[in-house]
Amino acid sequence: xxxxxxxxxxxxxxxxxxxxxxxxxxxxxxxxxxxxxxxxxxxxxxxxxxxxxxxxxxxxxxxxxxxxxxxxxxxxxxxxxxxxxxxxxxxxxxxxxxxxxxxxxxxxxxxxxxxxxxxxxxxxxxxxxxxxxxxxxxxxxxxxxxxxxxxxxxxxxxxxxxxxxxxxxxxxxxxxxxxxxxxxxxxxxxxxxxxxxxxxxxxxxxxxxxxxxxxxxxxxxxxxxxxxxxxxxxxxxxxxxxxxxxxxxxxxxxxxxxxxxxxxxxxxxxxxxxxxxxxxxxxxxxxxxxxxxxxxxxxxxxxxxxxxxxxxxxxxxxxxxxxxxxxxxxxxxxxxxxxxxxxxxxxxxxxxxxxxxxxxxxxxxxxxxxxxxxxxxxxxxxxxxxxxxxxx
Length: 392
Prior knowledge:
Blueprint lengths: L1 E3 L35 E4 L4 E4 L2 E2 H7 L2 H10 L5 H13 L5 H9 L6 H16 L6 H21 L14 H10 L5 H14 L6 H11 L4 H12 L8 H11 L2 H13 L3 E3 L11 H13 L1 H21 L9 H11 L7 H22 L26
Antiparallel strand pairs: 1-5, 2-3, 3-4
Helix pairs in contact: 1-8, 2-16, 3-6, 4-5, 5-6, 5-10, 6-7, 6-16, 7-8, 8-13, 8-15, 8-16, 9-10, 9-16, 10-16, 11-15, 12-14, 13-14, 13-15
Protein backbone atom coordinates (compact mmCIF):
# COMPACT_ATOMS: atom_id res chain seq x y z
CA UNK A 1 0.00 0.00 0.00
CA UNK A 2 1.26 3.46 -0.83
CA UNK A 3 0.29 6.97 0.12
CA UNK A 4 -0.20 9.66 -2.51
CA UNK A 5 0.77 12.76 -0.63
CA UNK A 6 -1.73 15.43 -1.74
CA UNK A 7 -4.92 13.42 -1.25
CA UNK A 8 -3.70 11.45 1.16
CA UNK A 9 -8.48 -2.71 4.93
CA UNK A 10 -18.61 -16.37 14.03
CA UNK A 11 -20.56 -17.79 11.42
CA UNK A 12 -22.31 -15.54 9.01
CA UNK A 13 -25.88 -14.68 9.81
CA UNK A 14 -28.66 -15.23 7.31
CA UNK A 15 -28.30 -11.76 5.84
CA UNK A 16 -24.55 -12.02 5.22
CA UNK A 17 -23.76 -10.11 2.06
CA UNK A 18 -27.00 -8.14 2.02
CA UNK A 19 -27.29 -4.48 2.85
CA UNK A 20 -30.44 -3.70 4.82
CA UNK A 21 -30.11 0.02 4.09
CA UNK A 22 -28.28 1.93 1.39
CA UNK A 23 -25.67 4.09 3.08
CA UNK A 24 -24.17 7.03 1.22
CA UNK A 25 -20.37 7.07 1.10
CA UNK A 26 -17.54 8.46 -0.96
CA UNK A 27 -16.84 5.13 -2.65
CA UNK A 28 -14.78 2.17 -1.53
CA UNK A 29 -17.61 0.96 0.77
CA UNK A 30 -16.18 2.59 3.90
CA UNK A 31 -18.54 2.04 6.80
CA UNK A 32 -20.68 -0.51 4.97
CA UNK A 33 -21.18 -3.79 6.85
CA UNK A 34 -21.13 -6.48 4.18
CA UNK A 35 -20.75 -9.60 6.35
CA UNK A 36 -20.36 -10.87 9.87
CA UNK A 37 -17.35 -12.96 10.82
CA UNK A 38 -15.79 -14.67 13.82
CA UNK A 39 -12.40 -15.04 12.15
CA UNK A 40 -10.57 -11.77 12.77
CA UNK A 41 -11.14 -8.23 14.01
CA UNK A 42 -9.24 -5.15 12.89
CA UNK A 43 -9.47 -2.28 15.38
CA UNK A 44 -8.06 0.63 13.41
CA UNK A 45 -8.50 3.18 16.20
CA UNK A 46 -6.69 1.18 18.89
CA UNK A 47 -4.22 -0.44 16.47
CA UNK A 48 -5.22 -4.01 17.31
CA UNK A 49 -5.56 -7.16 15.23
CA UNK A 50 -7.29 -10.19 16.75
CA UNK A 51 -7.60 -13.72 15.34
CA UNK A 52 -10.55 -15.49 16.95
CA UNK A 53 -9.96 -13.69 20.25
CA UNK A 54 -6.15 -13.87 20.29
CA UNK A 55 -3.99 -10.75 20.02
CA UNK A 56 -1.68 -10.77 17.00
CA UNK A 57 1.36 -9.85 19.11
CA UNK A 58 1.01 -13.03 21.18
CA UNK A 59 0.49 -15.20 18.12
CA UNK A 60 3.39 -13.70 16.14
CA UNK A 61 5.85 -14.19 18.99
CA UNK A 62 4.83 -17.66 20.15
CA UNK A 63 2.93 -19.60 17.45
CA UNK A 64 3.71 -21.37 14.20
CA UNK A 65 1.85 -20.71 10.99
CA UNK A 66 0.33 -24.18 11.24
CA UNK A 67 -1.12 -23.37 14.67
CA UNK A 68 -2.64 -20.15 13.35
CA UNK A 69 -4.06 -21.88 10.27
CA UNK A 70 -5.70 -24.43 12.59
CA UNK A 71 -7.10 -21.56 14.67
CA UNK A 72 -8.58 -19.86 11.61
CA UNK A 73 -10.08 -23.05 10.16
CA UNK A 74 -11.25 -24.90 13.27
CA UNK A 75 -11.87 -22.01 15.65
CA UNK A 76 -9.36 -22.97 18.35
CA UNK A 77 -5.62 -23.37 18.82
CA UNK A 78 -4.56 -27.01 18.39
CA UNK A 79 -3.23 -29.30 21.08
CA UNK A 80 -0.13 -31.35 20.27
CA UNK A 81 -2.11 -34.21 18.73
CA UNK A 82 -4.17 -31.88 16.56
CA UNK A 83 -1.07 -30.00 15.41
CA UNK A 84 0.71 -33.24 14.51
CA UNK A 85 -2.35 -34.34 12.54
CA UNK A 86 -2.44 -31.06 10.63
CA UNK A 87 1.26 -31.32 9.83
CA UNK A 88 0.69 -34.82 8.44
CA UNK A 89 -2.11 -33.49 6.24
CA UNK A 90 0.11 -30.68 4.97
CA UNK A 91 2.88 -33.15 4.15
CA UNK A 92 0.45 -35.44 2.31
CA UNK A 93 -0.67 -32.53 0.11
CA UNK A 94 2.84 -31.36 -0.83
CA UNK A 95 2.59 -32.57 -4.42
CA UNK A 96 2.07 -30.88 -7.78
CA UNK A 97 0.16 -32.75 -10.51
CA UNK A 98 2.19 -33.18 -13.69
CA UNK A 99 -0.26 -31.11 -15.73
CA UNK A 100 0.20 -28.18 -13.35
CA UNK A 101 3.99 -28.59 -13.43
CA UNK A 102 3.82 -28.57 -17.22
CA UNK A 103 1.84 -25.32 -17.18
CA UNK A 104 4.34 -23.71 -14.81
CA UNK A 105 7.28 -24.95 -16.86
CA UNK A 106 5.89 -23.55 -20.10
CA UNK A 107 5.37 -20.02 -18.78
CA UNK A 108 8.08 -17.51 -19.83
CA UNK A 109 10.91 -17.05 -17.34
CA UNK A 110 10.08 -13.36 -17.08
CA UNK A 111 6.49 -14.01 -15.98
CA UNK A 112 5.42 -12.31 -12.79
CA UNK A 113 5.26 -14.88 -9.96
CA UNK A 114 1.80 -13.61 -8.97
CA UNK A 115 0.58 -14.44 -12.48
CA UNK A 116 2.23 -17.84 -12.25
CA UNK A 117 0.59 -18.54 -8.90
CA UNK A 118 -2.82 -17.50 -10.22
CA UNK A 119 -2.38 -19.74 -13.27
CA UNK A 120 -1.17 -22.71 -11.22
CA UNK A 121 -4.04 -22.46 -8.74
CA UNK A 122 -6.53 -22.31 -11.59
CA UNK A 123 -5.01 -25.34 -13.34
CA UNK A 124 -4.83 -27.30 -10.08
CA UNK A 125 -8.42 -26.45 -9.27
CA UNK A 126 -9.60 -27.58 -12.71
CA UNK A 127 -8.31 -31.12 -12.17
CA UNK A 128 -8.49 -31.48 -8.38
CA UNK A 129 -11.45 -29.54 -6.93
CA UNK A 130 -15.14 -30.28 -7.02
CA UNK A 131 -18.04 -29.89 -4.68
CA UNK A 132 -18.69 -27.53 -1.81
CA UNK A 133 -15.62 -25.91 -0.16
CA UNK A 134 -14.22 -28.00 2.69
CA UNK A 135 -11.46 -27.85 5.26
CA UNK A 136 -9.63 -30.63 3.41
CA UNK A 137 -9.64 -28.45 0.30
CA UNK A 138 -8.42 -25.48 2.35
CA UNK A 139 -5.49 -27.53 3.63
CA UNK A 140 -4.73 -28.84 0.15
CA UNK A 141 -4.62 -25.34 -1.34
CA UNK A 142 -2.60 -23.79 1.48
CA UNK A 143 -0.04 -26.60 1.35
CA UNK A 144 0.49 -26.12 -2.39
CA UNK A 145 0.82 -22.34 -2.70
CA UNK A 146 4.53 -22.36 -1.76
CA UNK A 147 5.18 -25.39 -3.96
CA UNK A 148 3.82 -23.63 -7.05
CA UNK A 149 5.98 -20.58 -6.43
CA UNK A 150 9.13 -22.53 -5.64
CA UNK A 151 8.72 -24.69 -8.75
CA UNK A 152 8.56 -21.62 -10.98
CA UNK A 153 11.47 -19.99 -9.18
CA UNK A 154 13.59 -23.10 -9.85
CA UNK A 155 12.52 -23.38 -13.48
CA UNK A 156 13.42 -19.76 -14.23
CA UNK A 157 16.91 -20.46 -12.86
CA UNK A 158 17.31 -23.49 -15.14
CA UNK A 159 16.82 -25.91 -12.24
CA UNK A 160 14.35 -28.67 -11.49
CA UNK A 161 11.86 -28.38 -8.62
CA UNK A 162 12.77 -30.09 -5.38
CA UNK A 163 10.85 -32.61 -3.31
CA UNK A 164 9.47 -31.28 -0.05
CA UNK A 165 11.01 -32.47 3.20
CA UNK A 166 8.46 -33.99 5.53
CA UNK A 167 10.27 -32.98 8.70
CA UNK A 168 10.11 -29.28 7.83
CA UNK A 169 7.30 -26.93 8.79
CA UNK A 170 5.49 -24.69 6.33
CA UNK A 171 7.92 -21.75 6.46
CA UNK A 172 11.09 -23.85 6.50
CA UNK A 173 9.92 -26.08 3.65
CA UNK A 174 9.12 -23.05 1.50
CA UNK A 175 12.60 -21.62 1.98
CA UNK A 176 14.17 -25.03 1.29
CA UNK A 177 12.20 -25.47 -1.94
CA UNK A 178 13.31 -22.02 -3.12
CA UNK A 179 17.02 -22.42 -2.38
CA UNK A 180 17.81 -26.14 -2.11
CA UNK A 181 19.46 -25.50 1.24
CA UNK A 182 18.22 -26.04 4.76
CA UNK A 183 17.36 -22.52 5.90
CA UNK A 184 18.92 -20.73 8.84
CA UNK A 185 16.87 -20.90 12.00
CA UNK A 186 16.61 -17.11 12.24
CA UNK A 187 15.25 -17.00 8.68
CA UNK A 188 12.66 -19.64 9.51
CA UNK A 189 11.59 -17.73 12.62
CA UNK A 190 11.32 -14.48 10.67
CA UNK A 191 9.32 -15.96 7.80
CA UNK A 192 7.10 -17.94 10.17
CA UNK A 193 6.20 -14.79 12.10
CA UNK A 194 5.52 -12.99 8.84
CA UNK A 195 3.16 -15.77 7.75
CA UNK A 196 1.35 -15.56 11.09
CA UNK A 197 0.98 -11.78 10.85
CA UNK A 198 -0.42 -11.80 7.32
CA UNK A 199 -2.72 -14.83 7.61
CA UNK A 200 -5.90 -12.75 7.92
CA UNK A 201 -7.00 -9.14 8.18
CA UNK A 202 -10.73 -8.67 8.31
CA UNK A 203 -12.75 -7.70 5.24
CA UNK A 204 -9.89 -6.52 3.04
CA UNK A 205 -10.23 -6.32 -0.74
CA UNK A 206 -8.99 -9.82 -1.57
CA UNK A 207 -10.94 -11.50 1.25
CA UNK A 208 -14.11 -9.68 0.23
CA UNK A 209 -13.51 -10.79 -3.35
CA UNK A 210 -13.09 -14.41 -2.24
CA UNK A 211 -16.33 -14.24 -0.24
CA UNK A 212 -18.24 -12.70 -3.16
CA UNK A 213 -17.22 -15.59 -5.41
CA UNK A 214 -17.96 -18.15 -2.70
CA UNK A 215 -21.41 -16.58 -2.21
CA UNK A 216 -22.32 -17.59 -5.77
CA UNK A 217 -21.71 -21.22 -4.69
CA UNK A 218 -18.62 -21.38 -6.88
CA UNK A 219 -15.72 -23.65 -5.89
CA UNK A 220 -12.82 -22.88 -3.56
CA UNK A 221 -10.24 -22.67 -6.37
CA UNK A 222 -12.27 -20.05 -8.24
CA UNK A 223 -12.58 -18.02 -5.05
CA UNK A 224 -8.81 -18.21 -4.50
CA UNK A 225 -8.01 -17.22 -8.08
CA UNK A 226 -10.24 -14.16 -7.68
CA UNK A 227 -8.58 -13.28 -4.38
CA UNK A 228 -5.14 -13.52 -6.00
CA UNK A 229 -6.23 -11.08 -8.69
CA UNK A 230 -7.27 -8.58 -6.02
CA UNK A 231 -4.11 -9.04 -3.95
CA UNK A 232 -1.88 -8.35 -6.95
CA UNK A 233 -2.86 -4.68 -7.12
CA UNK A 234 -0.42 -2.16 -5.58
CA UNK A 235 -3.21 -0.56 -3.55
CA UNK A 236 -3.67 -3.86 -1.70
CA UNK A 237 -0.80 -6.36 -1.54
CA UNK A 238 1.41 -5.37 -4.44
CA UNK A 239 3.46 -2.71 -2.66
CA UNK A 240 6.26 -4.50 -0.69
CA UNK A 241 8.64 -4.72 -3.63
CA UNK A 242 7.93 -1.05 -4.36
CA UNK A 243 8.99 -0.23 -0.80
CA UNK A 244 12.29 -1.93 -1.54
CA UNK A 245 12.61 0.09 -4.75
CA UNK A 246 12.00 3.31 -2.80
CA UNK A 247 14.65 2.46 -0.19
CA UNK A 248 17.14 1.65 -2.94
CA UNK A 249 16.29 4.90 -4.70
CA UNK A 250 16.94 6.88 -1.51
CA UNK A 251 20.19 5.00 -1.15
CA UNK A 252 21.70 6.61 1.95
CA UNK A 253 20.88 8.19 5.28
CA UNK A 254 22.10 11.55 3.97
CA UNK A 255 19.73 11.47 1.00
CA UNK A 256 16.65 10.48 3.01
CA UNK A 257 15.44 13.96 3.99
CA UNK A 258 15.84 15.70 0.60
CA UNK A 259 14.30 12.70 -1.23
CA UNK A 260 11.29 12.47 1.08
CA UNK A 261 10.77 16.22 1.28
CA UNK A 262 10.73 16.39 -2.51
CA UNK A 263 8.26 13.50 -2.72
CA UNK A 264 5.87 15.14 -0.27
CA UNK A 265 6.03 18.62 -1.80
CA UNK A 266 5.71 17.43 -5.41
CA UNK A 267 2.86 14.94 -4.86
CA UNK A 268 4.98 11.80 -5.15
CA UNK A 269 4.35 8.55 -3.32
CA UNK A 270 5.79 7.20 -0.12
CA UNK A 271 5.47 3.44 -0.44
CA UNK A 272 4.50 1.54 2.70
CA UNK A 273 2.90 4.51 4.48
CA UNK A 274 -0.78 4.91 5.32
CA UNK A 275 -3.63 2.44 5.77
CA UNK A 276 -7.35 2.62 5.04
CA UNK A 277 -8.24 1.21 8.48
CA UNK A 278 -5.44 1.93 10.95
CA UNK A 279 -5.41 5.47 12.33
CA UNK A 280 -2.44 4.67 14.54
CA UNK A 281 0.46 2.21 14.25
CA UNK A 282 -0.26 -1.01 12.38
CA UNK A 283 0.39 -3.75 14.99
CA UNK A 284 1.80 -6.02 12.28
CA UNK A 285 4.33 -3.36 11.30
CA UNK A 286 5.46 -3.11 14.92
CA UNK A 287 6.26 -6.84 15.00
CA UNK A 288 7.90 -6.79 11.57
CA UNK A 289 10.08 -3.84 12.54
CA UNK A 290 11.71 -5.83 15.31
CA UNK A 291 12.09 -8.93 13.16
CA UNK A 292 13.74 -6.91 10.40
CA UNK A 293 16.09 -5.36 12.97
CA UNK A 294 17.30 -8.82 14.00
CA UNK A 295 17.32 -10.43 10.55
CA UNK A 296 19.35 -7.76 8.72
CA UNK A 297 20.78 -5.07 11.04
CA UNK A 298 22.71 -3.22 8.32
CA UNK A 299 19.82 -2.71 5.88
CA UNK A 300 17.47 -2.08 8.80
CA UNK A 301 19.37 1.09 9.73
CA UNK A 302 18.50 2.82 6.46
CA UNK A 303 14.89 1.58 6.45
CA UNK A 304 14.37 2.76 10.02
CA UNK A 305 15.98 6.13 9.32
CA UNK A 306 13.69 6.58 6.30
CA UNK A 307 10.66 5.75 8.48
CA UNK A 308 11.64 8.25 11.19
CA UNK A 309 12.49 10.96 8.66
CA UNK A 310 9.27 10.47 6.74
CA UNK A 311 7.21 10.58 9.93
CA UNK A 312 8.88 13.82 11.02
CA UNK A 313 8.40 15.47 7.62
CA UNK A 314 4.79 14.30 7.36
CA UNK A 315 4.08 15.82 10.76
CA UNK A 316 5.68 19.04 9.54
CA UNK A 317 4.22 19.27 6.05
CA UNK A 318 0.97 17.32 6.41
CA UNK A 319 -0.03 17.82 10.05
CA UNK A 320 -2.95 15.86 11.40
CA UNK A 321 -2.83 13.18 8.74
CA UNK A 322 -1.78 10.39 11.14
CA UNK A 323 0.08 8.41 8.48
CA UNK A 324 2.31 5.61 9.74
CA UNK A 325 4.18 2.71 8.20
CA UNK A 326 1.93 -0.20 7.30
CA UNK A 327 2.60 -3.93 7.16
CA UNK A 328 4.19 -3.70 3.73
CA UNK A 329 6.98 -1.34 4.77
CA UNK A 330 8.93 -3.73 6.99
CA UNK A 331 7.70 -6.78 5.10
CA UNK A 332 10.08 -5.72 2.35
CA UNK A 333 13.04 -5.50 4.72
CA UNK A 334 12.27 -8.85 6.35
CA UNK A 335 11.68 -10.80 3.15
CA UNK A 336 14.81 -9.36 1.62
CA UNK A 337 16.70 -10.47 4.74
CA UNK A 338 15.51 -14.07 4.46
CA UNK A 339 16.62 -14.18 0.83
CA UNK A 340 13.46 -13.66 -1.23
CA UNK A 341 13.64 -11.70 -4.47
CA UNK A 342 11.41 -8.65 -4.75
CA UNK A 343 8.95 -10.26 -7.16
CA UNK A 344 8.28 -13.00 -4.60
CA UNK A 345 7.18 -10.57 -1.87
CA UNK A 346 3.50 -10.31 -2.83
CA UNK A 347 3.17 -14.03 -3.73
CA UNK A 348 4.58 -14.85 -0.30
CA UNK A 349 1.88 -12.61 1.15
CA UNK A 350 -0.55 -14.96 -0.66
CA UNK A 351 1.17 -18.03 0.83
CA UNK A 352 0.17 -16.66 4.21
CA UNK A 353 -3.23 -15.19 3.34
CA UNK A 354 -4.43 -18.44 1.74
CA UNK A 355 -5.23 -19.65 5.26
CA UNK A 356 -7.42 -16.62 5.94
CA UNK A 357 -9.03 -16.64 2.50
CA UNK A 358 -10.04 -20.27 2.83
CA UNK A 359 -11.35 -19.71 6.38
CA UNK A 360 -13.58 -16.92 5.04
CA UNK A 361 -14.68 -19.03 2.05
CA UNK A 362 -15.73 -21.80 4.44
CA UNK A 363 -17.50 -19.35 6.71
CA UNK A 364 -19.38 -17.89 3.74
CA UNK A 365 -20.28 -21.29 2.31
CA UNK A 366 -21.51 -22.69 5.62
CA UNK A 367 -24.30 -20.12 5.93
CA UNK A 368 -24.52 -18.48 2.58
CA UNK A 369 -26.45 -15.62 1.08
CA UNK A 370 -25.51 -14.21 -2.31
CA UNK A 371 -23.55 -10.98 -1.90
CA UNK A 372 -25.34 -8.51 -4.14
CA UNK A 373 -24.98 -4.86 -3.01
CA UNK A 374 -26.71 -1.89 -4.55
CA UNK A 375 -25.11 0.84 -6.65
CA UNK A 376 -26.27 4.43 -6.87
CA UNK A 377 -26.95 5.28 -10.50
CA UNK A 378 -25.71 8.74 -11.51
CA UNK A 379 -26.36 8.69 -15.27
CA UNK A 380 -29.17 10.22 -17.35
CA UNK A 381 -32.74 8.88 -17.15
CA UNK A 382 -34.66 10.31 -20.13
CA UNK A 383 -32.56 10.10 -23.28
CA UNK A 384 -34.53 9.92 -26.56
CA UNK A 385 -33.62 6.96 -28.73
CA UNK A 386 -32.51 7.87 -32.29
CA UNK A 387 -32.20 5.12 -34.96
CA UNK A 388 -28.69 4.54 -36.26
CA UNK A 389 -29.50 5.93 -39.71
CA UNK A 390 -30.57 9.25 -38.21
CA UNK A 391 -27.71 9.78 -35.79
CA UNK A 392 -25.28 12.58 -36.57
